From TrEMBL:
Gene3D superfamilies: Medium-chain alcohol dehydrogenases, catalytic domain (3.90.180.10), NAD(P)-binding Rossmann-like Domain (3.40.50.720). InterPro entries: ADH-like_C, ADH-like_N, ER, GroES-like_sf, NAD(P)-bd_dom_sf, Quin_OxRdtase/zeta-crystal_CS, Zn-ADH-like_protein. It comes from the Bacteria. Pfam families: ADH_N, ADH_zinc_N. This is NADPH:quinone oxidoreductase family protein.
Length: 325
């Protein structure tokens, strides 16, 4: 097998494409012949030694991937050779093969495209947990999605629409705003050229959004919170802008609003039944055509550096995929 190996977590440039011995699944594991893996923001942090999970060295990065099972370890009876599956974890996906715990594998329906499956669980799982579970989003409410053209942003637009909400998508260019419109956003704001607060006042008749979905952090967080509706819910998804904003604590008081943390990985670990139910609803919505991952770029697995570079330009719309084919 071949894999991208991190033996010194100082950044992307230290990753090496290596020939390795084919792994054999241990008891309770399966081996997956990987067809596609997606690039997520934690995949950058983990090779910089900045992620909350710090795997022992050396390791193969890549937290989300799909393919077909080609070997089954002792004790695994619900999965079989040839089954199409997706897998989520912290590592292993940027390779031709990976051995993973059977409990980390998501069996796929026959009609679930493997490319889509590699770009699905992290982003759609996060957005479903955020909007449906943590925010208790109701039909007719208004959702503001920041960073709306990225992987989690595009999933949030689609899930909010599937739940019957009105969506205002905020992004950094007209091209990204156009994409958001194409996938269902009711209105868009280019916050590179438009004042976010003034635009929100106009688009909500002064009421403000009921829910703010923020995977970005940084400079727009305070403006977005100052615009939130009474009893609004501000969803803290992440900080792709780099800076963690310092919120004035009088704002939640004056707005009667909630600051809601969203940590999908721990939700999966702590509440597996609720997580499984959420994924089942997402799979049903996918089958109905209500949600579908937006794929920005497809690259060969051997071109991981180019994929990271593409993500670093902040021009990615949706997800970048790495393929073994």
């Amino acid at each position: 097998m071949q894999a991208w190996v991190c033996d010194n977590p100082i950044g992307v440039d230290a990753l090496q494409w290596k020939q390795l011995d084919m792994p054999q699944p241990a008891p309770g594991e399966v081996r997956i012949a990987i067809q596609a893996a997606s690039l997520n923001f934690p995949d950058l942090l983990i090779v910089q030694n900045k992620y909350q999970v710090k795997p022992p060295l050396p390791f193969v990065p890549g937290a989300e991937f799909s393919g077909r099972i080609d070997a089954v370890g002792e004790g695994v009876t619900h999965l079989h050779i040839g089954d199409p599956v997706a897998a989520i974890g912290a590592t292993g996906g940027f390779a031709t093969h990976a051995c993973v715990k059977a409990t980390s594998v998501i069996p796929l329906p026959a009609n679930f495209n493997l490319d889509d499956a590699a770009a699905f669980a992290f982003t759609y799982g996060t957005s479903h947990h955020a909007l449906i579970d943590r925010a208790a989003l109701q039909p007719g409410e208004t959702v503001l999605v920041l960073g709306a053209a990225g992987g989690v942003g595009t999933s949030a637009i689609q899930i909010a629409k599937a739940a019957g909400a009105r969506v205002i998508a905020a992004a950094s260019s007209d091209e990204k705003c156009q994409l958001c419109t194409e996938i269902g956003a009711d209105a868009t704001i280019n916050y590179s050229t438009t004042d976010l607060r003034e635009a929100l006042k106009t688009l909500t008749d002064g009421k403000g959004p009921d829910v703010v979905y923020d995977p970005v952090g940084g400079e727009f967080a305070t403006a977005a919170f100052r615009s939130i509706a009474w009893r609004g819910r501000y969803l803290v998804i992440g900080f792709t802008a780099g800076a963690i904003p310092a919120l004035p604590w009088n704002l939640p008081l004056l707005k009667g609003a909630s600051v809601v943390g969203v940590f999908w990985g721990d939700f999966v670990r702590r509440e597996p039944r609720a997580s499984a139910a959420a994924m089942a609803q997402l799979a049903d919505w996918y089958a109905q055509g209500k949600i579908k991952p937006v794929i920005d770029t497809r690259l060969p697995m051997s071109e991981l550096h180019a994929a990271y570079e593409r993500m670093g330009t902040r021009q990615v719309r949706g997800k970048v995929l790495l393929l073994n084919r």
